[in-house]
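Mods, move this if it's the wrong board.
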Amino acid sequence: MSNLRKIDLCYPNEDLYWILWTSDSKDEVLSYDTITTSQCFVSDAEPIDFYTDREVWKNILEENGIDPDSPFPPDSKKEVLEN
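Not the wrong board. Structure tokens:
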């Protein structure tokens, strides 16, 4: 039986930004996105961090080699350019 917590957020008061890590050491980003005030987010994935400050979230992603303003995730952009 799993001890994972279920996260169920709907219609936050302000936009939220999240980062899902590959492990508790938080040395590699697995996924990331935004939850707007008109969206719901349900997940049991961990470890996940939430941010209300977009600049803090963006800086953490950039420190991990990710440009959150890019229209392509880092790996898919490379594949598109190579094909």
